[in-house]
Design goal:
Blueprint lengths: L3 H5 L32 H16 L5 E5 L13 E6 L10 H5 L4 E6 L5 E6 L4 E6 L5 H14 L1 H14 L5 H22 L5
Helix pairs in contact: 4-6, 5-6
């Protein structure tokens, strides 16, 4: 279980020397497109949730729709972001082969950052973030999502920011360009949840 201090503290540490998070080909430049909210996104998530449950059964401890496609009325990249919690992300044999059999491809392995793994699905486009139960990052994702669902001003601020920084290139660069606003909104979400003094 994450503490309040862990939830409100962001870790910007680079990978350990000599290590890369990429499995296979390193990150490639791509077109980053922000589109208007689509009412079909929650239904797409529901289909993917069922696919995950079919693949993993009780090994899927928690499955959450996160990211911008989980917030009604928020412009977003048309990619469903999902947080999956499993007992031990280091035990990849317990979940990766079953997910790969359903079309997911392991792209990121970051045992040094809260045990994070990321698998991608081409169609429907999805990023599946896998975490162990004690990770703070998925808690932050849910707080951010829930805050945006209830705060129109921050929702519009985030949409404007994403449109302004979405240019062709690396997704990591896009994420870095919007980081300041994400953290400003996150601080308001943390305060609203009573996690900040």
């Amino acid at each position: 279980m994450s503490t309040a201090a862990e939830i409100v503290t962001f870790d910007d540490s680079p990978p350990p020397p000599g290590l890369s998070p990429w499995v296979g080909t390193p990150e490639q430049p791509r077109r980053i497109e922000i589109v208007e909210a689509d009412a079909a996104w929650p239904r797409t998530f529901a289909v993917l949730r069922d696919r995950l449950l079919d693949a993993l059964g009780e090994r899927a401890l928690q499955i959450e729709h996160v990211g911008s496609t989980s917030v009604p009325a928020l412009a977003a990249k048309p990619v469903i972001d999902i947080d999956l919690t499993v007992a031990d992300t280091d035990d990849e044999d317990a979940y990766v082969p079953a997910l790969e059999a359903r079309g997911f491809v392991l792209r990121v392995r970051e045992p040094w950052w809260q045990g994070h793994r990321c698998l991608v699905l081409a169609a429907p486009a999805a990023n599946l973030h896998v975490w162990p139960p004690d990770s703070a990052e998925p808690v932050r994702h849910r707080l951010f999502r829930d805050h945006l669902r209830g705060n129109a001003a921050d929702r519009e601020l985030y949409a404007r920011t994403k449109r302004a920084v979405a240019v062709d290139g690396l997704m990591s660069a896009y994420n870095a360009r919007k980081q300041q606003v994400v953290r400003e909104i996150s601080a308001r979400a943390f305060a609203a949840a009573g996690l900040l003094p």
